[in-house]
Amino acid sequence: MFDNLSDKLNAVFKKLKGRGTLTEKNIEEGLKQVRLALLEADVNYRVAKKVISDIKERALGQDVMDSLTPGQQIVKIVYDEFTTMMGDEHEALNFGGATPASIMLVGLQGSGKTTTAGKLALFLRKNGRKPYLVPVDVYRPAAIEQLQKLGSQIGVPVFPSTAQMAPVDICTEAVRSAINEGCDTLLIDTAGRLHIDEELMAELEAIKKSIKPSEILLVADAMTGQDAVNIAESFDKRLNLGGVILSKMDGDARGGAALSIKAVTGKPLKFIGVGEKTTALEPFYPDRMASRILGMGDTLSFIEKAQEAVDIKKAEELEKKLRKNQFTLEDFMDQISSVRKMGSIKELIGMLPGINKKQLAGMNIDDREFVRIEAIINSMTPQERRDHAIIKGSRKKRIAMGSGTTVQDVNKLLKSYTQAMKVVKKFNKGGLRSLKNMLPF
Ligand code: GDP
Questions:
Q1: Is the Cβ–Cβ distance between 105 and 113 less than 8 Å?
Q2: Sign of the CA dihedral 100, 103, 109, 110?
Q3: Mutational test site, ligand 1, from 137, 147, 247, max ligand atoms within 8 Å of CB
């Protein structure tokens, strides 16, 4: 996400930061490069022009030029202006006053609407709501089936729509059915077309009129760049959107849509989709995204994911064990599975400051390694798990056989366990505080 743009901006900033003093010409030359980088990332032309002129106005101020670290000040100004361009604050979902609330998802076919409905359902449930999925794409029975499958995968009820029902009837019946099921939020997966057409818009307007949704969200494919922005404008004109969700931000989207959508349409980007899994949805925070783009990492999202995955009680128990040197291989496996719950290791490392795509590609991280580790630990006896010192030659051979690995694998695991003990001890001393110290501002 944004790798190309990040690399280009960092090259510009490196030059600016390298100088003790800056002239107007240095700044103008630097900002010209920033503008080019934005256009290459497919940022809307007018938006790029406006943001550069805002940055320039502040950067050419005397307090920047005279400061001891003018380059750094400019990076801060760019960060501020990028944040503003993307909407400043995170905008939460609007549930309105009515119960049940209903969120209508609209968008073109293939934009990721159905997948996003499943992701949102999971997100809402994690946040204490009781979602109810409603498939309305009666023209494509496969779409109804897809949502039913997703619903049963994540354990969220799905309204039993059929291809014979009329879209508006489905929605009004689904509201009654949601109440019966004890649900408080309907997620309506509307039909999509390959292109915007009158028939589709009329159907969406009719649904809007009949159920008065608390929120209409457009799901658009980030890979389509400025097309996504144009689509958002068209849907907004007819339906008055509450916000946008950009899917496929994990692909090689250049980022232009995320950067321009708020500035062009006035409608906030509320979430981004970052993968095909149901957990791959992130609430969108303009400031965190600006800091990711500028290569400062996204430590806050990282901390949030960590907090979600870590069971505080368990963490306290572990801390006690560590202090008493009773941290066993069983605890090690527990730690690994809670880290795995957070997502792929590469995705997590990618959120940390100063890591770029090239470095990440160079790291030899294989999530399958964890599966191997679990298999090895599972092949140990409880006694071995509690006291790794007894694992010698013949035990190692038995464990390797049992887990379908080699003695070298077992040795490697024992080595990383002892290393992990050291790291965990260090981390526990500083706790989350040490992570927060890594924040750029
Ligand atoms: P719909 O026609 O709008 O309902 O689109 P689908 O939900 O069926 O999604 C179309 C394709 O995009 C599917 O293959 C999804 O797995 C994929 N997809 C959806 N969201 C994301 C995302 O955030 N990242 C990636 N990589 N793929 C996605």
A1: yes
A2: negative
A3: 247
Q: Which two tokens stand for residue 374?
A: 């679990």
Q: Over its length of 441 residues, how does the chain's per-residue pLDDT go in tens digits?
A: 778 888 889 888 888 888 777 888 888 999 999 999 999 999 999 999 999 999 999 888 877 777 777 887 888 889 899 999 999 999 999 998 788 999 999 999 999 999 999 999 999 999 999 999 999 999 888 999 999 999 999 999 999 999 999 999 999 999 999 999 999 999 999 998 888 889 999 999 999 999 999 999 999 999 998 999 999 999 999 999 999 999 999 877 778 999 999 999 999 999 999 999 999 999 999 998 898 888 766 655 665 666 666 666 666 776 677 666 677 888 777 777 776 666 666 666 666 655 555 666 666 666 677 788 888 999 999 899 888 889 999 999 999 999 999 999 999 888 878 776 766 566 555 544 444 443 333
User: DSSP 3-state assignment of 418?
Assistant: helix
Find out whether 112 is annotated in a ligand binding site.
yes
- For residue 26, CA distances in Å to 23, 65, 68, 338 come to 5, 11, 16, 48
pTM, rounded to two decimals: 0.73
The CA 248 to ligand 1 mean position distance, Å, reads: 7
Q: Is the CB of 145 under 6 A from ligand 1?
A: no
Q: For residue 111, how far is its CA from the centre of ligand 1 (angstroms)?
A: 6
Q: Ligand 1, atom 20: nearest CA belongs to which residue?
A: 112
Is 66 close to ligand 1, i.e. is its CB under 6 Å away? no
What ipTM goes with this model? 0.99
Q: Which residue segments constitute the domains of the chain, with CATH numbers given?
A: 3-85 (1.20.120.140), 101-296 (3.40.50.300), 303-438 (1.10.260.30)
Using the mean position of ligand 1's atoms as its centre, give its distance from the Cα of residue 122 in Å. Answer: 16
For residue 93, what is the DSSP state? Answer: -
The residue whose CA has the least distance to atom 12 of ligand 1 is 112
Nearest Cα to Cα of residue 34 among 293, 335, 354:
293
436 alpha carbon to ligand 1 midpoint, in Å? 34
* Cα 277 to ligand 1 centroid, rounded to whole Å: 9
Which helix (H) or strand (E) is 360 found in, with range? helix 357-362
